[in-house]
Amino acid sequence: MTLWLVEHDTVHPAEDMMLAAALADALGAGVVTLDTGGGGLGAYEARQHVTDVGLGLNGLFWIEWYSNASAKGPLPPGVIATWAQGDWVVPVNPAVSAQADMARRLADRAEQLDQPVQHVIIEQGQDGWHVAGDCPADFPKHWQRDAYGRPVADPPVHHATQANILIVGSEHRQRQTYPAVLAALGDAADALGLTLTLRFWDPAEASPNSLPDDLRDLDGIVLPGGADMDQVAGQIRVARAAIAADIPLLGLCLGMQTLTTAVAQMRAGFNDANMEEAAPDAETKVFRRLAQSEVTGGFRIGRGRAHPVAGTRLAAILGEAEVQVPVNHRYVLDPVLHDSLRRAGLVISAWQEGATLADAVELPDQRFCIGLQGHPELLTRRHRPHPLFTAFLKALDL
């Protein structure tokens, strides 16, 4: 067995573990992650990657993106004595003191057992990263991130067919903290032979009641998830404009909530409609807190199960069988409003497992307008994009 310690000193959760995962893929090795000791990387949303059992570091996305397998949880140093034969890669972030200490202990233990230890260093450069130390001869020495934030060693491929996509949220968050949405768009674009021009509009930084410029020049809009309630009002305004102009629209978790709220305001007659989390005093709360009787702890977290409704567009994309979706939310579309929203043209296109609670919605009269109460972006994989993102890009008028 060979222990590969991959040291990458970065404060950006979207980069953490990235090249360690690339090396593990090249070696055909497993990956074992280290605990942070509660230190984290300092970003509020550094632990937003949904695992089978809860939330983990965002860098776990890259391990799953490369391997198509669930990332293993942090392990104590003594486990090295019982590891099976083969190579193991351990990402180490010196910015997290607990990981640096654990790596030293792992190396000492491996040497006591006469097991080889290789030290790989990821160094930041002006145009990407340089790989130094005990790097395998055939592993690329220079890496950068492409337009979708994914690691590449070769120049990115540009396709002739192009599309303009607006992401209604913080560019810094999508690029430096939570990498999955951009990667999912890139994976789908590659599969379809598209090059996407990504625009960002952050409602938290915009003027009150404003909209992005040149909405008519857009081919599609994504409303991403997140916990920043400063995004809500702007996402609702953009969703209303997109629906009015029939611009393809994809809502993810928080984005599903803002999309649905826009429909409630525009078509169901609830001019005062809002989300309880963002506007506790709103008379019509389109999304309200999950009750203890609905979900244990009132918090839905982990790999949730959704049941697409036969005959809906979502079922045509994902199939009618039960599907798994990473979920992380405490709020749900209030069932009291289901009938009113149906009469307004909104279709509930998936239900939560074992409950009459909406997991997805869509507007059939639009070219593409789907919101999913979850994070399908976390299920995209290298060379195998999530079908919801592929369907979204296929709906663009190119």
What name does the CATH topology of the largest domain carry?
Rossmann fold
At the fourth level of CATH, the homologous superfamily of the largest domain is Class I glutamine amidotransferase (GATase) domain
Which CATH class of the largest domain applies here? Alpha Beta
Shape category: globular
Strand content: 25-35%
Mean pLDDT: 94
Q: How many domain modules?
A: 2
Distance between the termini: 51 Å
What's the CATH architecture name of the largest domain?
Answer: 3-Layer(aba) Sandwich
The assigned structural class equals alpha/beta
Rg, please? 22 Å
Query: Helical stretch count?
Result: 10
Runs with pLDDT <50, length 5+?
A: none
The percent of residues in helical segments reads 25-40%
How many strands, which pairing sense, and closed or not: the largest β-sheet?
9 strands, mixed
Beta strands, count: 21
Q: Provide the spatial order of strands within the biggest beta sheet.
A: 11-10-12-13-21-20-19-16-17
Structural notes for this entry:
The structure is a single chain. The chain has 398 residues and is α/β, with parallel strands linked by helices. The protein folds into two domains: 2-145, no CATH class; 158-394, Class I glutamine amidotransferase (GATase) domain (Rossmann fold, 3-Layer(aba) Sandwich). The protein has ten helices and 21 strands. The protein has helices at 18-27, 60-67, 97-112, 171-177, 180-192, 232-245, 254-266, 313-318, 338-343, 387-394, and strands at 2-8, 30-31, 49-50, 55-56, 87-92, 117-125, 128-133, 142-145, 151-152, 161-168, 194-201, 220-223, 249-252, 274-275, 285-289, 300-308, 323-329, 331-333, 347-352, 358-362, 369-372. The protein has a nine-stranded mixed β-sheet, with helices on both faces. The protein has a seven-stranded mixed β-sheet with strand order 2-5-1-6-7-8-9, sandwiched between helices. Helix 1 (18-27) packs parallel to helix 2 (60-67), helix 5 (180-192) packs across helix 10 (387-394) and helix 6 (232-245) crosses helix 7 (254-266). It is globular. The mean pLDDT is 94.
